[in-house]
Backbone:
């Protein structure tokens, strides 16, 4: 698909000169690109994805002075998007991407559920055993942190730390995809 | 959901105003100037300006000092401008920072070679080495605050690198202000203690950057 850059860059340049029509067209075309970008990285978390799309659109607006007209526009836009995504993951809200998997597991047809289960299992298998176990217990089997701690013979703090580290690892992996 | 995004786009479009050319440079230059004015007033009010400034302006030492810290400030400010853009890495030409350091180091060596060994300690320590780095650091705070506030409104994505460069810029600019007070005149002193003060603010920037520059 050629043409995003060729189409968006002139619109952005016109917008920087004050042309609201071009600006509207550029933002409208950017939104689905951003939606795709976040969907590829976060999996199935529609609210999160739309939040990030909107945050990125706002960043495009408030920080548009940092677009250097001689450089590629889409690279600039995705740099903002990447920052917003990294910021979300840094805030530790990466669990949402796992909650997305949970939704798939609890609803939907069997085939996609099975595929998602395999995705989750494959991801969990890449973690240290302890982290994988406590994530499975607290995030997929629905145990409370205290119950998981009792079952594993660990302290509550230990479970929390393991879940947090594990989710962070998973988030990094999803981001890298 | 999609509806609100559409509404957001409508909303943003109606708020559009043209962006002047070189807006990033202007904003950071304004921050730097505001910070330096505050820092200059702070210094004039507390430490005072050296009484022999007029004669110092005719000497070599003053221009060596301002040349050194001015070059460092200019390079670091230019790198900060770069890092205010989301799609850039720390510039490759940062190695140029080594040049002023090298020049001052050579001058320090020459001054040592031309002085008797008893005078060497004085060349490196001067009379104010115990306070110089901390005064430079203290004077850099208003500049650092102004710069990081300016940068946070732009779009840095490498917050630690950006914070470090902002800190070095603030430190070197504060050192430039401090030159109006400081009575020291040797290259060795400049190399060690001015650099230490600048480095302190750089360290502050490296530590606080990720927190201060988030957007």
Residues:
């Amino acid at each position: 698909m050629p043409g995003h850059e060729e189409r968006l860059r002139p619109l952005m340049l016109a917008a920087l000169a004050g042309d609201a029509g071009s600006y509207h067209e550029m933002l409208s075309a950017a939104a689905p690109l951003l939606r795709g970008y976040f969907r590829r990285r976060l999996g199935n978390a529609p609210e999160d994805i739309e939040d990030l799309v909107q945050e990125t659109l706002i960043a495009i607006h408030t920080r548009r002075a940092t677009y250097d007209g001689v450089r590629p526009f889409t690279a600039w836009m995705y740099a903002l998007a990447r920052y917003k995504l990294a910021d979300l993951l840094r805030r530790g809200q990466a669990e949402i991407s796992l909650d997305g998997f949970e939704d798939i597991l609890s609803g939907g047809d069997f085939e996609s559920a099975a595929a998602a289960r395999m995705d989750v299992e494959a991801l969990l298998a890449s973690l240290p055993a302890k982290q994988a176990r406590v994530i499975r217990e607290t995030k997929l089997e629905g145990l409370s942190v205290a119950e998981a701690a009792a079952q594993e013979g660990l302290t509550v703090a230990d479970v929390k730390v393991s879940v947090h580290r594990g989710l962070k690892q998973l988030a990094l992996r999803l981001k890298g995809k | 959901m999609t509806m609100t995004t559409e509404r957001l786009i409508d909303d943003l479009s109606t708020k559009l105003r043209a962006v002047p050319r070189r807006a990033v440079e202007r904003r950071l230059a304004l921050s730097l100037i505001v910070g330096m004015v505050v820092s200059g007033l702070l210094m004039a009010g507390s430490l005072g300006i050296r009484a022999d400034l007029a004669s110092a302006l005719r000497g070599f030492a003053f221009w060596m000092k301002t040349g050194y810290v001015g070059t460092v400030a200019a390079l670091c400010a230019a790198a900060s401008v770069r890092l205010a853009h989301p799609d850039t890495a720390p510039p490759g030409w940062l190695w140029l920072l080594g040049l002023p350091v090298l020049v001052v180091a050579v001058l320090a060596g020459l001054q040592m070679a031309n002085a008797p060994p008893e005078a060497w300690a004085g060349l490196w320590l001067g009379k104010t080495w115990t306070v110089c780095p901390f005064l430079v650091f203290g004077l850099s705070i208003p500049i650092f605050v102004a710069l990081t506030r300016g940068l946070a409104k732009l779009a840095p994505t490498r917050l630690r690198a950006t914070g470090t460069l902002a800190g070095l810029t603030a430190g070197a600019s504060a050192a430039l202000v401090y030159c109006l007070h400081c009575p020291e005149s040797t290259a060795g002193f400049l190399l060690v203690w001015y650099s230490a003060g600048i480095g302190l603010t750089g360290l502050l920037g490296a530590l606080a950057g990720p927190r201060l520059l988030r957007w």
Summary: Chain B touches chain A at residues 1-2, 4-6, 8-10, 12-19, 23-24, 27, 84-87, 153-155, 157, 214-215 (CB under 8 Å).
